[in-house]
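Input (structure):
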């Protein structure tokens, strides 16, 4: 490739050389002439050199911007709440307890909720307190699964309070003892009996406490008229027994002319048993308020007052403090039929007080 010349062309350079040679004096040496010729040739070569290639400016590297972090979604914590578990309680007690918890929870800044039952996996961090109206079989499992939650349980067993567990103790033997006492002071010729479970925490000792209650009033309570037998009597069956099983046992015992029955909560679970007994013109005492159709033959309800100790324990439980142990008292309600006189009711209430104060032992003391 032929490069273009920016200076004089070679012919022009040659002419200039000859012109300059002519201007030199004859005496000029060949050395001077030769040097001049070289200078002019170099100038011509420089004029014909290629044009310098322009250098592109160096690219300035822009520093990479760090990626913008994605916003992290923080889950909104669920509102804290207190939960009432009503399994094992009658409808009236459950409703009263729910109303009481609602008011106490609102004062503590918590929501309240009512359920029939609960499993360990359901208890989340928002569950600040769980209140059982009847302690479940897996209470220990529940308290261990949720150590951050406070538990309050009504129990008929010797359950010990702990760091996240408070207990309200009911004494079934106290209830059975007072029922036996109330039975013999109400029934003519002592002729009374009880329908009791034999598979509870106390087993058959519940029957022992019931009979001791009668003996506390009349000692050996033998009837005056035949058939002669010792009262009060008792029928003990598994708590799962239906009305038919109870009726068969009642019909057999009625051959001894029973005038009054104490019906435990377990025996009354089958709704057919109370109307059956009332239809035989028998006086009834029970552990729970009966249906309206039975009320004319209903003498009294001997129930535990669990609401008073629950109300006493709730403020500390809702504040996260456990380890409380309280006792539930007994009370006589549903006495409006007048089948028990006020004087006899007063006698029974005195026995209730003496039991709670420890003056009466419901079980037969062991022989020394």
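Output (sequence):
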């Amino acid at each position: 490739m032929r490069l273009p010349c920016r200076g004089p062309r070679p012919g022009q350079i040659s002419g200039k050389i000859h012109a300059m040679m002519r201007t030199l004096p004859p005496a000029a040496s060949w050395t001077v002439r030769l040097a001049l010729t070289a200078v002019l040739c170099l100038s011509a070569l420089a004029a014909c050199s290629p044009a310098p290639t322009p250098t592109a400016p160096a690219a300035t590297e822009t520093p990479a911007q760090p990626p913008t972090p994605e916003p992290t979604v923080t889950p909104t914590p669920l509102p804290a709440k207190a939960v009432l578990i009503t399994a094992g309680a009658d409808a009236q007690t459950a409703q009263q307890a729910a109303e009481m918890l609602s008011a106490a929870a609102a004062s503590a800044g918590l929501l309240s909720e009512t359920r029939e039952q609960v499993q360990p996996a359901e208890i989340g961090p928002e569950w600040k307190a769980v209140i059982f109206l009847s302690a479940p079989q897996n209470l220990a499992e529940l308290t261990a699964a949720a150590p951050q939650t406070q538990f309050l349980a009504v129990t008929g067993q010797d359950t010990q309070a702990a760091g996240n567990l408070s207990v309200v103790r009911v004494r079934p033997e106290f209830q059975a003892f007072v029922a036996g006492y109330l039975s013999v002071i109400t029934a003519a010729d002592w002729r009374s009996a009880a329908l009791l479970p034999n598979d509870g925490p106390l087993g058959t000792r519940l029957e022992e406490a019931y009979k001791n209650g009668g003996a506390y009033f009349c000692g050996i309570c033998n009837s005056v008229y035949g058939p002669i037998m010792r009262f009060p009597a008792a029928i003990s069956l598994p708590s799962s027994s239906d009305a038919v099983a109870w009726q068969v046992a009642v019909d057999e015992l009625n051959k001894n002319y029973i005038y009054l029955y104490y019906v435990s909560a377990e025996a009354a679970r089958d709704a057919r048993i109370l109307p059956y007994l009332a239809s035989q013109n028998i006086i009834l005492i029970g552990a729970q308020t009966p249906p309206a159709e039975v009320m004319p033959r209903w003498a009294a309800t001997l129930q535990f007052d669990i609401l008073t100790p629950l109300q006493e324990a709730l403020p500390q439980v809702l504040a996260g403090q456990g380890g409380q142990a309280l006792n539930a008292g007994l009370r006589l309600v549903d006495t409006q039929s007048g089948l028990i006189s006020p004087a006899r009711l007063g006698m029974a209430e005195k026995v209730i007080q003496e039991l709670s104060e420890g003056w009466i032992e419901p079980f037969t003391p062991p022989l020394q």
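Notes: The chain has a mean pLDDT of 86. The first helix runs from residue 10 to 23.
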